[in-house]
Amino acid sequence: MKAWVCENPVGVEALQWRDVPAPPLGAGQIRVAIRAASLNFPDLLIVQNKYQMKPPLPFVPGTEFSGVVTEVGDGATGFAVGQRVAAFGGLGGFATEVCIPAALAMPLPDAFSFEDAAAFICTYATSHHALMDRGALQAGETVLILGAAGGVGTAALQIAKAAGARVIAAAGSDAKCAACKALGADATINYATQNLRDELKALTDGKGPDVIYDPVGGDLAEAAFRSIAWRGRHLVIGFAQGSIPALPLNLALLKGASLVGVFWGEFAKREPGRNARMLAELAGWYATSRIKPVLDRALPMAELPAAFARMAAREVVGKVVLTNREA
């Protein structure tokens, strides 16, 4: 098999695409021939040694992928050879095959393409858990989505619209704002050229957004939180801008607002039943065309560095997918 191997996490340039031994199949695991894998922001951080998880070296990055089961280990129930699956496995996705615990795999309906499936679990599960569970979003409320043209942003936009919310999509260019508008955003803000607080005040008649979906952090977080509505919920998803903001907590007091942490991965581990029901609901939404992953482009797996470069340059709308040619 072939894989992108990280022996020294100093950046993308240190990754090597090479032949490696196939991983052994353990009890409770399935072997998957990978058809597609998608890039998530943690994939970049982990090869730069900036992610909270520090895997032992060497490792194969790639958190999210789809493919076909080629072998089933002892005790791995519910799966059969030839079955189509998707998984958020944490590691191993940027390769031609991987062994993962069967519990991490999601069976795929035939109508679910491998490319869509590889870009589905992380972004849609994170966004659904954030908006519907942690944010208690209600129909008719206004949602501000920061970084709305990215992977989690486009998923959040679709889920919020499916829930009956009004969506204000904020992104860093006119082209990205136009893409968000095409996805159904009710209004957009280009925070590279427009003042976020002024635009929010105008778009909400001074009320502010009920829910703020924030995967960006940095200097946008305080500006957004200062604009939040009474009883608003600011959802902390991540820090794609690079810096972790220090918010004045008196703002929460004055607005009766909540600062809400969102950690879908931990939720999935601690509450697997609720997570499984959520994924089943999302798969149903996909089947009825209420949601669909936005794919920036699909590249051959061997072109991973080019995909990383596009992500680092913040050029991606939706998600980049890497594909393996089917044998």
UniProtKB/TrEMBL annotation:
The record's section on SUPFAM superfamilies has:
GroES-like (SSF50129), NAD(P)-binding Rossmann-fold domains (SSF51735)
Q: Is Metal-binding tagged as a keyword?
A: no
Organism superkingdom = Bacteria
Keywords associated with the record: Oxidoreductase
Class of enzymatic activity (EC top level): oxidoreductase
Q: Which GO terms describe its molecular function?
A: oxidoreductase activity
Tell me which InterPro entries the record gives. ADH-like_C (IPR013149), ADH-like_N (IPR013154), ER (IPR020843), GroES-like_sf (IPR011032), NAD(P)-bd_dom_sf (IPR036291), Quin_OxRdtase/zeta-crystal_CS (IPR002364), Zn-ADH-like_protein (IPR051397)
- List where the protein spans the membrane: none
Span of domain Enoyl reductase (ER): 11-322
Give a yes or no for keyword Oxidoreductase in this entry. yes
EC code(s) of this entry:
1.-.-.-
Specify the protein name.
NADPH:quinone oxidoreductase family protein
Organism of this sequence: Pelomonas lactea
